[in-house]
Amino acid sequence: MLSQPLSPPVEWAVSTAPVGYDDAVAFMEARVAAIAEGQAAEMVWLLEHPPLYTAGVSSKDADLLMPDRFPVHRTGRGGQFTYHGPGQRVAYVMLDLNRRGRDVRAFVRGLEGWIIGALDRLGVLAGVRDGRVGVWVERKGAGWSREDKIAAIGVKVRRWVSFHGVSLNVDPDLDHFAGIVPCGIAEHGVTSLLDLGLTASMDDADAALKAAFQSVFGEVTEAAPPV
Asked: Is the per-residue pLDDT at 1 higher than 80?
């Protein structure tokens, strides 16, 4: 069961200034340990990173097409290469799966449902695809159609506490994705809310994410962002 109505609300923190990747990982490592010890509440941390690439545990060096374009961070999350940068909402999810059911697949399905629900609130029909990680949208024109990724998912679980999380493309520079093969999938593209013709702000995206999160994982409470 992903939602735990009798548990304390999940702390919901939003950073307004860009956060360095190493700083974010250091905070998550400490917070996950504290959650596992029962010394801290669960947390979702929303932020933006400066432009960078991250390499998950399944990444292939050949998928890093422009190694000198942005800093590259090797990380312990699942998945392959991804891009983070301004205009992309990153949500780091630190939840205690000991209390939510020790089922990583169900947890990932919950993350997918969360993003799909948030996009629905923003007027975007999205879904998942067999054999492809993340959340996708179908695009059609006169005589053509394709599927583009709008959100990525990459998580890690330690002592049954999750960290890392999801990233939703609000209005990033999509050209920045050209330095990698995103998530190892070369035959499909990447899109954003702005690319789809939506002028949603980051605040709009945050509100949709918050509402959809509560429908899947339970109540949240506002918290100060990590310093």
From this structure: no
* 56 closest CA partner among 179, 188, 164: 164
Rounded to 5°, the CA angle 8-24-118 comes to 60
Structure-token pair, residue 25: 């990982």
pTM, two decimal places: 0.94
Q: Which residues are catalytic?
A: 183
CA–CA separation, 91 vs 45, rounded Å? 6
As a whole number of angstroms, the distance between CA 12 and CA 9 comes to: 9
pLDDT (tens digit per residue) in 105-128: 999 999 999 999 999 999 999 999
d(CA 176, CA 91): 19
What count of Cα atoms within 13 Å lies in the side-chain half-sphere of residue 223? 19
Backbone φ and ψ of 47, nearest 5°: -160, 175
Structure-derived torsion over alpha carbons of residues 114, 100, 30, 209, reported in degrees to the nearest 10: 20
pLDDT in tens, 34-74: 999 999 999 999 999 999 999 988 899 999 999 999 999 99
